[in-house]
Specification:
Elements lengths: L14 E5 L13 H14 L2 E4 L20 H11 L5 E3 L2 E2 L5 H14 L4 E6 L4 H6 L7 H20 L4 E4 L4 E5 L13 E4 L3 H10 L2 E5 L3 H17 L8 E10 L3 H11 L6 H7 L4 E4 L1 H12 L3 E9 L6 H11 L2
Parallel strand pairs: 1-2, 1-12, 2-3, 3-5, 4-5, 5-8, 8-9, 9-10, 10-11, 10-12
Antiparallel strand pairs: 6-7
Helix pairs in contact: 3-5, 5-6, 6-7, 10-11
């Protein structure tokens, strides 16, 4: 296992990151920012990169929203950059619709600068319609959102690498002589991770991504996604092997069966059985002992995944899941 991040994406090392507790699935449960910092420092010491979701309200299964904290992604990661020193930090993934791409390029450059070159730039087309409506954003068709993402990535990359000003005129976005200093510390720019799973999204990933991240899928489904990604690479004459394949997955891990059942009881909906929870989450949540988790991850590694972003559940004040998770990762 590689201890840290993404300095060389084109070797065979496996890389592992974890989601910070931030409130997306009611995972803070009264724990404050001091706990998040302790989580981040523990994860960093164990060798994980650190990630956050880009959402404004908790996931719809975890209602009511009122009174439940949900921390904004870029603000949270900027604060975590200031208390860590080695861990790479990224978004899984930034919703392109929520920020003007020129502003986002500036934000990313700034975060790479203040973290001394530790940014992973994760971005996707956006999907959570209720959140769009709630916060006053238009929710166009999936095709339009993906076209917007393509234009945004052209602007963002230009603003990272152009020595002078950047100009772009597109169907959705326009910048005129946009100046961006300081440039990112990483050269030529921070790794771009495109996240999502639709066929059109995979076409954008083939064009722009240093890393392609697929969320919450089983091995068979991911195999199919990667086949489509490879087809798109062939069509644009890009070397498919230059894209690092990444997986986002929730994990419930415990060293004993009894403890595992206790953890599932904390995470599941109150009206569902343990067996139904396990069945419902097959392919999106790995559940088991460190050996079980390692076997599941090995299945993904066998089809070419080299970059894993894991969301340990439930959040625990003793941080035991992080230590069990690193044991599993070392066995992959």
């Amino acid at each position: 296992m590689d201890s840290m991040g993404m300095s060389n994406h084109h070797d065979s090392r496996l890389e592992f990151g974890v989601l910070l507790p931030q409130g997306w699935i009611d995972d803070l449960k009264g724990l404050g920012f001091e706990y998040i910092k302790r989580f981040a420092l523990t994860a960093e010491a164990l060798g994980f990169s650190l990630w956050a979701y880009d959402h404004f309200i908790p996931y719809k299964e975890y209602r009511p929203f009122i009174g439940k904290p949900m921390l904004e992604c870029w603000t949270l990661l900027s604060s975590i950059a200031g208390v860590t020193s080695k861990a790479r930090i990224g978004q899984v993934v930034t919703c392109n619709s929520y920020r003007n791409p020129a502003l986002l390029a500036k934000m990313a450059s700034t975060l790479d600068y203040i973290s001394n070159g530790r940014l992973e730039f994760g971005i996707g087309a956006g999907w959570y319609e209720e959140e769009y409506v709630s916060y006053g954003y238009q929710f166009p068709s999936a095709r339009a959102r993906i076209e917007q993402l393509d234009e945004a990535l052209n602007i963002i990359r230009a603003m990272w690498v152009d020595e002078e000003a950047s100009t772009f005129h597109g169907k959705y976005h326009k910048v005129i002589n946009a100046v961006n200093y300081p440039k990112p510390v990483q050269k030529p720019h921070p790794p771009i991770m495109v996240g999502g799973s639709g066929r059109l999204l995979l076409k954008v990933a083939a064009k722009h991504a240093d890393i392609y991240n697929c969320p919450f899928v089983d091995v068979d489904e991911l195999t199919d996604k990667l086949r489509v990604l490879k087809e798109h690479c062939i069509n644009i004459r890009r070397d498919y092997s230059t894209i690092v394949k990444s997986l986002l997955m929730r994990v419930i891990i415990a060293d004993r069966h009894e403890t595992l059942i206790d953890k599932i009881r904390v995470v599941k909906r109150s009206d569902e059985s343990i067996d139904w929870f396990i069945s419902r989450n097959k392919g999106s949540t790995i559940i088991g002992t460190p050996d079980d988790v390692a076997r599941e991850l090995q299945g993904y590694a066998a089809i070419g995944v080299r970059h894993f972003i894991l969301h340990p559940l439930p959040i625990e004040e003793d941080l035991e899941s992080l230590r069990l998770l690193i044991d599993a990762c070392k066995k992959v």
